[in-house]
């Protein structure tokens, strides 16, 4: 095991679903490489695998949507992580509404934002998309306590999706 592998295996950060639209195509995938990277101005970096369809659509997109699914949304993560848009219309199987520029905003996630693509960084097998938030929100949904506030729901984490086999090829 490499030094990096032994470091990374201890992390259990949230996972995200990223959606994009460009040239009449929609795409989305499960992402585990993402983070806020600036406070002022607010910026968020999301890394997309160059092997998946979402990257191919996102590289022409002006905006991307980033969604924070709850632990109760494993099926959504499985759809966007375990299927490829090359073979399955994921958006026919998920509830969503069009956001700015038509980018799909998934219903019922803990939180989401649509960000303007400010830049792209090639890092090998992933490309980073630097996003500047344009709009966003949280979804009201009954949580564990019976309230309609989703703040008592936990985010879906990397360890929760460990068993999902990527829908796109890994090499």
UniProtKB/TrEMBL annotation:
<dbReference type="InterPro" id="IPR002563">
    <property type="entry name" value="Flavin_Rdtase-like_dom"/>
</dbReference>
<feature type="compositionally biased region" description="Low complexity">
    <location>
        <begin position="136"/>
        <end position="148"/>
    </location>
</feature>
<dbReference type="GO" id="GO:0042602">
    <property type="term" value="F:riboflavin reductase (NADPH) activity"/>
</dbReference>
<feature type="compositionally biased region" description="Basic and acidic residues">
    <location>
        <begin position="150"/>
        <end position="160"/>
    </location>
</feature>
<dbReference type="InterPro" id="IPR012349">
    <property type="entry name" value="Split_barrel_FMN-bd"/>
</dbReference>
<dbReference type="GO" id="GO:0010181">
    <property type="term" value="F:FMN binding"/>
</dbReference>
<protein>
    <submittedName>
        <fullName>Flavin reductase</fullName>
    </submittedName>
</protein>
<feature type="domain" description="Flavin reductase like">
    <location>
        <begin position="8"/>
        <end position="145"/>
    </location>
</feature>
<dbReference type="InterPro" id="IPR050268">
    <property type="entry name" value="NADH-dep_flavin_reductase"/>
</dbReference>
<keyword id="KW-0560">Oxidoreductase</keyword>
<dbReference type="Pfam" id="PF01613">
    <property type="entry name" value="Flavin_Reduct"/>
</dbReference>
<feature type="region of interest" description="Disordered">
    <location>
        <begin position="136"/>
        <end position="171"/>
    </location>
</feature>
